[in-house]
Amino acid sequence: MALFSKVGQLAKCYSISDLRTLAQRRLPRAVFDYADGAAEDEVTAQRNEAAFQGYDLLPKVLQDVGTIDLSTTVLGSPVSMPILLSPTGMTRLFHHDGETAAARAAERAGTVYSLSSLSTTSIEDVASVSSGPRWFQIYVWKDRGLVREFFNRCRDSGYDALMLTVDVPVLGQRERDLRNGMTIPPSLTLNSILDASLHPSWWWRFITSPRIHFANVTEERSAKSADLTALWTYVNSQFDPSVTWRDLEWMVGEWDGPFAIKGVLSPEDAGTAASLGVHGIIVSNHGGRQLDHTPATLDALPWIVDAVAGRAEVILDGGIRRGTDVAKALALGARACMIGRAYLYGIGAGGQAGVERALEILRAELLRSLALIGCSKADALGPSHVRKRHF
C-alpha cells in the first residue's frame, strides 16, 4: 500500500518544485538542507534560478512541429534529450538506493549519468547496474596515484568520459549545514531523534541499510579506517589548492578520451581549456555551493560560447528547474544542460521512480516548449529564439 501511495504522490508532482516540496516532507531537515542549501548567503544559488527570468523566448509561428526531436550527442554519447545528470556526492543520504537509483533512471531516460568521486556507491557497482552512458567526475588530488587508480577503474568499467571539477581548491562555507549540525553520516543527537519521529521511514532505511561511506576511496588510503569521519578528513586534505593548467594538461593526456572541465565561469579560462584539448566545458558555479556572489551560469554562458568558438562543446550546469530553462540555454549556445538538485529532489521524493519523474517532467516541458516556440529539433534552437530582457 505504501508503494502505491508513493507512486500516486509522484504522479501528482507536476513540476520540479512539486518534487522539492515532497522531498522536503520526506527527508530529515539536515539532509534536505544539505541538498537544497548553498554557500554563505546563497546569493549565487538564487541567481542561477532567477537568471532564466531575464530572457524571453521568441516563438515562430506556422512551423511544422508535428514531430519534435530532442536527441543529440554530448561528448560522443548519444542521448535522447539534452538533459544530463550532474555528479552529486553522498547520494545515498537522500535515498537508500542512492547512485544506483539515479543511474538506472538515467539509463531508462536514455541520458548520461555522472558519478561523483565522492559517491556512496563505487565505480564498479554503478557500472554493474547501468549500461547507459556514464561519466565519472574527479578532482585534482594531491595523491596522483589515486587519480591514476580512478582512471584505470573507469576504463575497466567502461565509463565514456571523464569530468574534472576545478572550483573546489577549498570547500565553500555552507552555513545551513553548520546551523543544522549536519554530520556525514547523520549522527543520533537529541535533535535528530526528534526529527526521526517525523521521518521514521527515512531513519529506518538509514539504520537498516549498509553504512554510508565514500565508496571510491579505499580505507587503505586513510590509515585503514572504516570511519567515514576519518575518510572525510582524508578526502578534504586531498583537495589540491596548488593545481594549475599543467595538471589539467596531464590529466587530458593520461585519460586519452572524452574529457570535460566543470566549474568554468571565465571566458579566458574557457579559451585556455579549449586550447589544451578539453572536449567539453561545463559552465558551473557548483550550484552556488562554493564561492558566493559569482555570476549566474546562464549569464556567463554566452561569454563562454564566444570564447570557445566551437573548439569544445559547452554544457550549462546550474538553476535548471523547467523545460523552458533548457530551451533558453540551448538557444544561447549550450549543447546540453546538467541537473543536480532537480533530480535530488526526485530521489528524495521517491528513489528511482522520483528521478524518473523529474526527467519525465523536464522532457515533457521541453517538448511542449519547442512546439510552442515553433522549432522541431532541440539542436536547431539558436539566438533568434531568445532575447535578453531589459528591465
Strand and helix layout:
Elements: H1 2-11, H2 16-26, H3 29-36, H4 43-50, E1 55-57, E2 72-74, E3 77-79, E4 83-85, H5 98-109, E5 113-115, H6 123-129, E6 134-138, H7 144-156, E7 161-165, H8 175-180, H9 190-198, H10 200-208, H11 228-238, H12 245-255, E8 259-264, H13 267-275, E9 280-283, H14 297-308, E10 313-317, H15 323-331, E11 336-339, H16 341-373, E12 386-388
Parallel strand pairs: 4-11, 5-6, 6-7, 7-8, 8-9, 9-10, 10-11
Antiparallel strand pairs: 1-12, 2-3
Helix pairs in contact: 1-16, 2-16, 5-16, 13-14, 15-16
How would you describe this protein?
The protein is of the alpha/beta class and 391 residues long. It has helices at residues 2-11, 16-26, 29-36, 43-50, 98-109, 123-129, 144-156, 175-180, 190-198, 200-208, 228-238, 245-255, 267-275, 297-308, 323-331, 341-373, and strands spanning 55-57, 72-74, 77-79, 83-85, 113-115, 134-138, 161-165, 259-264, 280-283, 313-317, 336-339, 386-388. The protein has a single domain, classed as Aldolase class I (TIM Barrel), CATH 3.20.20.70. Helix content is 46%, strand content 12%. It has an eight-stranded parallel β-sheet. It is globular and about 60 Å long. Residues 222-226 have low confidence and may be disordered.
